[in-house]
Amino acid sequence: MAASTSPNFTTSLHKNSHKTKFPSLPGKKTLHTKLSFSFSFPFNKSIRVKSIGTAKYDEVVVDEELDKIRRLQNGSDVRGVALEGEKGRTVDLTPPAVEAISESFGEWIIKGLKKEKGYPVENVRVSLGRDPRVTGSKLSVAVFAGLARAGCMVYDMGLATTPACFMSTLLPPFAYDASMMMTASHLPYTRNGLKFFTKRGGLTSTEVEEICEKAARKYANRMAKVSTLLNVLPTKVDFMSTYSMHLREIIKERINHPLHYDTPLQGFQIIVNAGNGSGGFFTWDVLDKLGADTFGSLHLNPDGMFPNHIPNPEDKTAMALTRAAVLQNSADLGIVFDTDVDRSGVVDSKGNPINGDKLIALMSAIVLREHPGSTIVTDARTSMALTRFITDRGGHHCLYRVGYRNVIDKGVHLNNDGIETHLMMETSGHGALKENHFLDDGAYMVVKIIIEMVRMKLAGSNEGIGSLIEDLEEPYESVELRINIISEPRLAKAKGIEAIEIFRNYIEEGRLKGWELDSCGDCWVSEGCLVDTNDTPAPIDAQMYRAKVSNDEHAQHGWVHMRQSIHNPNIAVNLQSSVRGGCLSMARAFRDEFLKASGVHTFLDITQVDKFAENGSKA
Fold first, then answer.
1. 16, part of any domain
2. pTM for this structure?
3. Apex CA 604: angle with CA 599 and CA 606, to 5°?
4. Which terminus of the chain, N or C, has fewer Cβ atoms within 10 Å?
């Protein structure tokens, strides 16, 4: 969830010598609570180092402290465990860690603005929004403290969405220099995290890695305690009202209803399932004010424990409950948001869930009507049928790396190189449009669908938005398998890369008969939709390759995608086939002719692959 045109800030993160001195603001109270964060090293932890001196021992401990922050990076985000309750996981997203990361982000922004403008910038303003997680309040204080230490003026948006945080850097009268969102998206209530934005978009993985590296050194060097006194409370602002009005105006202007301009959704019933996340605003501040009937909507009140289901448009329970509500109320549309509303899914009037490839197809149909011949960028887990759907409508389909940031950034790069690309979308529901600042905004995606639904009705069609994807074929079989990496956490990434590179070599050497590294052919992406071969290749954040699979009987009938997880020490293997039994035969070849033949099974737990290869089931 995030805008993607990233700032070109490449300055190194040295301690910023310029600090803005904040005068006491009228009407602001001093926060008298002193926040004491312990940064003492856990010397009582069992770290066995034999036959080495004190200096070497200290080096081991410092490396461990540095890794605590480094491991929190999750691609272009920061994520971690913020609350006890997960079996086998300890709390690692602590207030001291959050403060160090926020301070480093603040310094990064200040130095980037200085480089951009050519002179020191004072009164740098940064906003913070958060989802309703129970750890949000405590960690927000750490963010405020870190930003203040960096010399930033801080603005508290309270409960917000990830797209709104980015828009707070653009929409007047706010137009902050940067913004942060505290969320862990659809992950359990015990998790939390941070997302980062400037006026140019969301930060890249490389930029977040740079910030986390600086934060790690801050964290490790604070040997005893850091006491932070907030001289003034952050300024509380209501940005969500402005953001909601922005969405309403887009709907009114583009529908341009001939009878009731200000209430163009009059006569439509639309059900929202916010999953107790941040998405309830879309019901009362957008749909209701435009005349829609939202009776039957679900889980609108924020609850950081997420008591009903995971707020996730990919979640089967979320989609099933929304489908039932649509059918029970004979509604025109159902909407499912994830926690921070950077993703969405819908249910049509007939109760058909539209997410994954179906949602990409729906958005492609809408976009290609408006922009004939546009390129559509997706991740490489989409079906061969989706490619046909897009090309049949005159579009071009670019398959690219898994990861919403990768997909969106690819669209930005294509546009910069003169290839018109209006939609970038991942199967998870992250979707961005060129017309909306390349921002993956679940609410804006739904706005586009609603506008098309009303236009179809005004044109005399009663078919509903589901009719736009009636000819989309579904793959006959599709499965995802997980392979755990048997390694110390700090070595897991390297082991994952090793296994995936061996997979590539096996295919290139022809050891897997009928398997070939895939490429869409519509742009300069090669080697299994991973590598850019143009003059400015994007850095690779996680290894992955897609192989298309053919045989004498069915020709090309499927693909296998092997990728390193950014989130966890495991490898995901996706298989998709257009013929019966295709996934089973590919899984067996993958296990016998690659995993075992290459020896990588010695450091991988292939239990799930074994089970599926034996009986066609993961259970």
1. no
2. 0.84
3. 95
4. C
